[in-house]
Amino acid sequence: MDIVNKIKGKFTPLSAENRYYKWALILVVSRCVLLLFFQGLLASFFYFKGIQNPWGSAAKWWTVYGTAVDLSCLLLLFFALKAEGKELLSLLDFSKKKLLKDVKNGLLVAIVIFPLLGFLFSVWTASFIFNESTLELILGRLAERRLPAWAYYYSITIWWVIWSVTEEMTYQGFGLPRLLGRYGRIKVILLIAFFWALQHSFLPLLLDWRYILWRFVSFFPLVLALIVSYLKIGRLTPIIFAHALMDIMAAIWTFEA
Question: Which pLDDT score is estimated for 14?
């Protein structure tokens, strides 16, 4: 069966002459740009406040300014869908009748993908790219965060919900089927996986090329697996559920114990 047809009931791929695919390209790239913009905006605020290492200080707040990225992305999606005569909710396929099955499939995706690709592969690539002392420094800057109480509770209760849904809506619900209507399937899958993985190099961005390379390499197979899972299952809800489980664990893990 053609891979496009496995996206059941989501979207009829557009013809090569249709202009809407350009919105898909914009959305796929937008999250990388928005992450740089909002981290830079916060870093500028810290700079004028006289805080030392403003860029590094801003990086710690990624689960807070990340919501500004999501809201901006949702605004772009709103205008893109408006041009098609559709609404934001058209990207979602939530169904009470299918909820139990979606939860089961989501758990299965998370259990199969996350331990191997989300954790073990990331650890392996880190040990390959960094020496031990540099790895400890990088992980300390990434994971041992301290934020005010309100920011901590926001991060572990609200951020990941908005982030997981918006991320999946952008790359898979909107970008994937529209680009498949214009380009070849392998090219589209690799294009989306590339920018999706690159996004994680900017979440947050630490100014070390080895860190950027590590984040990209470690996330590429993970997002590729999420894309393949969506195409195989044909529903976005279970993938959102699996993604949310990964994000909440990531949020909790990055704070200082």
Answer: 46
pLDDT digits (tens, 9 = 90+) for 107-139: 999 999 988 887 777 777 877 777 655 555 566
Rounded to whole angstroms, how far apart are CA atoms 82 and 94?
21
Instruction: Please report the pLDDT score of residue 246 as a whole number.
Output: 92
Biggest CA pair distance of the chain: 59
User: For the CA atoms of 245, 144, 131, 128, what is the dihedral angle to 10 degrees?
Assistant: 10
Q: How far is CA 21 from the centre of its chain?
A: 20
d(CA 79, CA 45): 30
Q: Which segments of 6-91 does DSSP mark as H helices, in order? A: 21-48, 54-59, 62-82
Question: Under 8 Å CB-to-CB from 41, ≥6 apart: which residues?
Answer: 65
Please count the residues of the chain.
257
CB 236 within 8 A of CB 230: yes
* Tokens 């004028």, located at residue: 48
CA gap 17, 22 in Å, rounded: 11
CA distances to 71, 112, 166, 188 from 118, rounded to whole Å, are 26, 10, 20, 22
CA separation for the pair 57, 43 (Å, rounded): 7
How far from 23 is each of 29, 32, 108, 188, 198, CA to CA, in Å?
Answer: 10, 15, 32, 14, 19
Residue (of 13, 69, 8, 1) closest to 237 by Cα position: 8
Residue 137 host element (H or E): helix 132-143
Helix (H, G, I), strand (E, B), or coil: what is residue 181? Answer: coil
